[in-house]
Hints:
Blueprint (H helix, E strand, L loop, with lengths): L10 E7 L7 H11 L4 E7 L5 H10 L4 E4 L13 E2 L1 H6 L4 E5 L2 E5 L1 H11 L9 E5 L3 H13 L3 E6 L2 H12 L8 E4 L3 H4 L5 E4 L16 H6 L5 E4 L8 H9 L2 E3 L1 H17 L5 H11 L5 H14 L1
Parallel strand pairs: 1-2, 1-3, 4-6, 7-8, 7-10, 8-9, 10-11, 11-12
Antiparallel strand pairs: 3-5, 5-6
Helix pairs in contact: 1-10, 1-11, 4-5, 4-10, 10-11
Bound molecules: NADP nicotinamide-adenine-dinucleotide phosphate.
Amino acid sequence: MTRSSLTGTTQVWGIIGYPVEHSLSPPMQNAALAQLAINGVYVPFPVEPATLESAITGLWSLGVQGFNVTLPHKQAVIPYLTSVTDLSQAVGAVNTVWRVEMGWTGTNTDVTGFIAPLQHSDRDWSQARVVVLGNGGAARAVVAGCVTLGCAELWLVGRSANKLQNFVESWQASPLKRPLHTGLTADLDALLPSTTLLVNTTPIGMHPHVEASPVTAQQMELLPINAIAYDLIYTPSPTQFLQLASRRGLQTFDGTEMLVQQGAAALQIWTQQPPPVDLMRQTLRAQLGLGTSQEIKYQLSRSNQDV
Ligand code: NAP
């Protein structure tokens, strides 16, 4: 959509955050709206924490159709919504909001985004052991995703017994209550040989510390050859963690896919139309200065040859 094609009936979606100017969502969502030929725009709204409540009321009064929520508002927005899904209540955070008759409803599409690539794999999740590295905000979305997939056994591995315990206690009080096992980093070697899915939710390996990995090459060797390695980090792509997994011959997923799929899930809620996922992925990867999936496969096969 160009500025001259904005009309009196143009619908508005957006994202609230502070800061929000580095968000990758506006180009991705605007490309998708154009592809769907929807008379709509997606706008970044910088909202200072002190003005959150009035901003939410203002968005409603202005007829905004829905919005994404990013840092620092993902938890703080909840009291200003009419209702939230069980999923977002369990995660404790909302990232997608839409208009209902009496106000706003919110959910968490990070969960949908996380499981989207896994749903296409032919695993029997009811037999799967999942090991989640880290116990922060993203780990909550991952655990919610694994509960949704019906995974048999869920392990949280972290460096603080107290934080692990707090996570488990709050999870048991949530609508997605489910047994969770915990381990410290030193317990990892014993867990890996029967792990189906290993997920990194720590920032270890994120730009600029691109040589770091939450597991060593030797630990990667302990995983079964049919295991999946999933890193939530999207810069760099692939991370050192995923490069080690690829060299081991494992199936890998990176954080860009989760980012694309959470946006696609939000767009589907707002428009009730199938989102143009390929275009959204292409737009996001271009924003991140990353290659296409084909280029990445080529780079990985080159790095395998270098071993
Ligand atoms: P967070 O709430 O700060 O949690 C980070 C977790 O990593 C904590 O459990 C922390 O342990 C652990 N950790 C940090 N540094 C560590 C280290 N050096 N050694 C061991 N553990 C360490 O952050 P978050 O919001 O969950 O985000 C985590 C990562 O996920 C980030 O890289 C973020 O970019 C990524 N993410 C990606 C997406 C996506 O769409 N792809 C979405 C959300 C998040 P302690 O609790 O002991 O400090």
